[in-house]
Amino acid sequence: MPGWNEKDIPDQDGRVAVVTGSNSGLGYVVARELARKGARVVLACRSEVRGSAAADRVMGEVPGASAEFARLDLGDLGSVREFADRFPYDRLDLLVNNAGVMALPYGTTADGFETQFGVNHLGHFALTGRLMPLLLASPGARVVTVSSEMHAMSNIDIDDLNSERRYRRWTAYARSKTANLLFTHELARRLTAHGTDVVAAAAHPGYAATDLQGTAPRMEGRRLAGWVMELGNRVFAQSAETGALPTLYAATAPDVRPDSFTGPSFMMWRGAPAPSWRAPWTLNDTAGERLWAASEELTGVSYDLLKA
Question: If you ran DSSP here, which 8-state letter would residue 161 be given?
Answer without folding.
Answer: T
